């Protein structure tokens, strides 16, 4: 459920007309619904309540949408943070998220990042190689601290999603092979400065079936038993994220958080471990839209070209992995058309969809790309010397600009010549 709805013939975000935002801020602009984020955070926490030993920790995947005001809102709603860089760690801390609710994931953590996060405090490092564990040990020993950690296991389970958002097969860069886990845990347990109490898994994003997740979790359960038999004190199991979100009619309907929670409780019964979860898209995906204006309609060989002022630099997902976004008119006429929707960037890949039936619109009309709250603004860039889109947060009948539009002159201002 989201809070974008037609009121008096025009699309609103909660109580605010999107036309009002476009008139005030311009386009393209990301618009987020605070009520939708609040609801999704509450639903996810309720879905996993009672699972595992102790209170589950739902750690929002900051990479999905790292805006400071989004993080503050989700922190206030009770979520922790899953970070993959020291920049995300700093953002989470600045947003008020407590260190003991932050997990640090990612395959390329540097010694400097480890040192800063360890001195600032965190719940756990999710370690992705034996080499990384050795580096973390050296960093912790140098500080005279103990680093809490768990290995990320690669269970070689296909998520059944797009190849570029699959993370749990043997050909992916993430995690350590499940077959090597017992040897790696044994070595890590003997290294100074490490508290090896966790295990983690994450197999991909936008999953539309629980079966791959269940297979991965069962493999984790087997490993927990084997590791404890080896003498390891495994107390924490991080089950990652990846549950898909609905994209609208004609698209695969993913299982809901409630069904996910039921599966988790069934599979993890008897683990006697505290459970962690890392949802990102599930929390913010349908809480945001990209608001854009039609520049012109150009005749095409098969279908007209609907050219909008948002480009692939604003919303990269369709160009990156053929992602689907529902496209709607802000003020629908009740008539439809079949069009190709494209942006102004000088790339053939700047194509959002081909031969899509959608609301009939004309030059100057506003449209939205739905399900744009995750992996939208965070992936944007200034290609073609285009400005970075603005971001707006709506809360009831109020709205606020939470990232100003960054124009090409500001981006060019970081260019410099300093010969050495």
UniProtKB/TrEMBL annotation:
Its EC number is 4.1.1.20. Pathway: Amino-acid biosynthesis; L-lysine biosynthesis via DAP pathway; L-lysine from DL-2,6-diaminopimelate: step 1/1. Keywords: Amino-acid biosynthesis, Decarboxylase, Lyase, Lysine biosynthesis, Pyridoxal phosphate. InterPro entries: Ala_racemase/Decarboxylase_C, DAP_deCOOHase_LysA, De-COase2_C, De-COase2_N, De-COase2_pyr-phos_BS, MerR-type_HTH_dom, Orn/DAP/Arg_de-COase, PLP-binding_barrel. Its cofactor is pyridoxal 5'-phosphate. Residues 1-27 form the HTH merR-type domain. Transmembrane segments: none annotated. Substrate binds at residues 281, 317, 321, 347, 375. The modification N6-(pyridoxal phosphate)lysine is found at residue 63. Pyridoxal 5'-phosphate binds at residues 242, 278-281, 375. It catalyses: meso-2,6-diaminopimelate + H(+) = L-lysine + CO2. HAMAP family: LysA (MF_02120). Specifically catalyzes the decarboxylation of meso-diaminopimelate (meso-DAP) to L-lysine. Homodimer. Belongs to the Orn/Lys/Arg decarboxylase class-II family. LysA subfamily. This is Diaminopimelate decarboxylase. The lineage of its organism: Bacteria, Pseudomonadati, Pseudomonadota, Alphaproteobacteria, Sphingomonadales. The gene is lysA.
